[in-house]
Write a structure and sequence with these properties.
- The structure is a single chain.
- α2 links the parallel β1 and β2.
- α9 crosses α10 (259-267).
- The protein has helices spanning 2-27, 37-55, 66-75, 121-128, 156-166, 183-191, 202-205, 223-228, 247-257, 259-267, 279-287; strands spanning 30-35, 58-64, 80-83, 97-111, 118-119, 146-148, 196-201, 211-213, 215-216, 234-241.
- It has two domains: 10-17 and 22-103 and 236-291, Periplasmic binding protein-like II (D-Maltodextrin-Binding Protein, domain 2), CATH 3.40.190.10; 105-228, D-Maltodextrin-Binding Protein, domain 2 (3-Layer(aba) Sandwich), CATH 3.40.190.10.
- It has eleven helices and ten strands.
- Strands 1, 2, 3, 4, 6, 7, 8 and 10 form an eight-stranded mixed beta sheet that branches. Strands 5-9 form a two-stranded parallel ribbon.
Length: 298
């Protein structure tokens, strides 16, 4: 009798231990997010903080760029990624589950103390193609333009600017100074001196006090001007799900798309899907449907 009682007690203890372990595991649930720095700094940090506060599920937010994030999510190396470009028709990306979460504007940036406030499309083309190399030609100081661009032609900013502005994914920038690995580094480098010039996304660039975004053809890339389509270089921001997404990961996506999540997007100064209703049609007219991920529609 004592032996049966002892076995019963041991079984009960094991059951309690299993429940505690399951509870601890649930409390330790974590989502890994990686990818586009513009999407990360623009909306994901704020969304992740709010989701953790709401559910207790922690989100490890990494960078790495759109190229790495998209391919890591497609391969299941991370739970979800951020991307500021569509998936390319290559094995590492084809069939990626891409979910639009916001709208962004590709922007030219310079240091806050640079007197130049805007460029025309032709001036922008002349800078990137090396015909204008001094700020004086743009109404600024007699100072060399230090042009910073992303490494490689498949990054989110690097690829989208080439196909949207130059209509050439292989466009070269002959006078480019450096090739940093992230848009965040470009923003930092540009902000260090008045001669700096580079590309980024409005969603992150507007948060950096040391840089300013330049108007393009007289239109400033404000939240309202991007939402209305008055600013020309509009593009979507995506989350990319792995094929084996957990319920917690799907929950985060649902949260980002909910009224609460989209209100956070707007509060971060980024264009929500509702604010950008109608931009899909504009994007297709300006740049072509081939540069959008399939699920995106108004």
């Amino acid at each position: 009798m004592r032996r049966i009682s002892a076995w019963r007690r041991a079984a009960q203890l094991l059951s309690v231990a299993a429940l505690l372990l399951a509870s601890a595991s649930a409390q330790a649930a974590q989502i890994t997010w990686a990818g586009c720095g513009i999407t990360k700094n623009g909306i994901t940090k704020a969304l992740a903080t709010a989701y953790e506060r709401k559910t207790g599920v922690t989100i490890e937010v990494r960078g790495g760029g759109a190229l790495k994030g998209l391919r890591d999510a497609r391969a299941g190396r991370v739970d979800v990624a951020g991307s500021c470009r569509y998936a390319l028709p290559v094995p590492q990306e084809a069939g990626a589950n891409m979910i639009p979460v916001a709208w962004d504007g590709l922007v030219m940036i310079t240091a806050r103390d640079n007197p130049v406030t805007g460029l025309t499309s032709q001036q922008t083309r002349d800078v990137f193609e090396g015909r204008i190399t001094n700020w004086k030609a743009l109404g600024g100081r007699d100072e060399r333009i230090a042009l910073f661009t992303r490494r490689g032609k498949l990054s989110g900013v690097g690829h989208m600017f080439r196909v949207m502005f130059f209509r050439n994914p292989y466009q070269e920038y002959p006078t480019a100074e450096e090739a940093p690995r992230s848009s965040g580094l470009i923003e930092m480098l540009v902000g260090k001196g008045s001669g700096g010039f580079g590309l980024s996304g409005a969603s992150s660039a507007h948060k950096r006090p040391e840089v300013k975004m330049l108007s393009l053809d007289g239109v400033y890339p404000s939240q309202d001007n991007i939402a209305s389509g008055r600013y020309y270089l509009i593009r979507p921001l995506y989350y990319v799900l792995s094929d084996s997404a957990s319920p917690q990961t799907q929950g985060f996506i649902d949260f980002a798309l909910s009224a609460e999540g989209q209100a956070i997007v707007e509060a971060e100064g980024v264009v929500s899907l509702a604010q950008g209703r109608g931009l899909t049609k504009l994007f297709k007219e300006r740049f072509g449907a081939q540069y959008l991920a399939a699920p995106l529609r108004d």
